[in-house]
From TrEMBL:
The lineage of its organism: Bacteria, Pseudomonadati, Pseudomonadota, Alphaproteobacteria, Caulobacterales. This is AraC family transcriptional regulator. GO terms for molecular function: DNA-binding transcription factor activity; sequence-specific DNA binding. The keyword DNA-binding applies. It comes from the Bacteria.
Length: 262
């Protein structure tokens, strides 16, 4: 593609004769990208806006201060809460032996953000020798550095059983729902005890803890969009802002007002 206008099709970046390629695109609110996978590994990153990315194994919330490392071949889908400025990296899996082979949430530092934005302005087939090649290598170094400190609390494990998936997706659409376990067992077409055992077996979490994680993921999306803490607390199903703040701090180590500056 050289200096020509950049394609906004991910397929055009899988065979580029460079270790890294950057796709830039603008997505409207409520944009949905159905399940797909890539030949290359991917750092899913939005420089503005909030995305939700769901794999067969987990759900991730991605505000501008975070990214998700997606190994090659991992099937995933994406949903944009509002308008999103996508600046995603496609990485040849052989580019660096330090890159992980599992999904990871990572903090996008100010330096990594600026490097990605600068890389998105370079020719797709940039010069390997010289400034452009060194810039791309520095991006790899910064990604590896960030991955060494993963932010695991940002992901919600997903079950494989279609009946449990149905329950989870219903809850993720509105985590504030207060229905009891019997109601969700009916949605799944299971008995209460069967649901409880199956849920823990497939996610590693009890149903109540999983619902709490889903609420926190939704809260992160709303906070990243600038919503006040009090409004977010009620929107995700907490009875008071203080209860929400206490749960948030237990999960992330900082109160919601400080999370994105941590």
């Amino acid at each position: 593609m050289g200096h020509a206008q950049r394609s906004t099709s991910s397929a055009d970046y899988q065979q580029v004769a460079r270790p890294l390629a950057v796709l830039s695109d603008e997505y409207p609110p409520a944009f949905y990208d159905p399940p797909h996978a890539h030949q290359r590994a991917q750092l899913v990153y939005a420089s503005a806006g909030v995305m939700s990315v769901v794999t067969d194994g987990a759900s991730f919330t991605i505000p501008p201060q975070r990214g998700v490392w997606m190994p090659a071949g991992v099937r995933h889908e994406a949903y944009c809460r509002g308008a999103v400025s996508l600046r995603t990296l496609y990485v040849d899996p052989s580019a660096d032996a330090r890159l992980p082979t599992t999904c990871r949430v990572l903090k996008v530092s100010s330096l990594l953000r600026e490097l990605i934005l600068e890389a998105s302005e370079l020719p797709v087939e940039y010069e390997l020798d010289g400034r452009d090649g060194r810039l791309m290598q520095l991006i790899l170094d910064e990604v590896v550095r960030s991955i060494a400190c993963p932010l695991t609390a940002l992901h919600v494990p997903m079950p494989q059983d279609p009946r449990l998936v149905r329950v989870c997706r219903t809850l993720m659409q509105d985590p504030s729902q207060e229905e009891d376990l019997d109601r969700w067992a009916a949605v799944a077409g299971m008995g209460r005890r069967t649901l409880t055992r199956a849920f823990r077996r497939e996610t590693g979490l009890s149903f109540s803890v999983w619902r709490q994680q889903a609420r926190l993921g939704e809260a992160l999306s709303l906070l990243a969009m600038g919503r006040p803490v009090t409004s977010v607390a009620f929107d995700v199903g907490y009875n008071s802002p203080s209860a929400f703040t206490a749960m948030f701090q237990r999960a992330f180590g900082v109160p919601p007002s400080q999370y994105f500056s941590a």
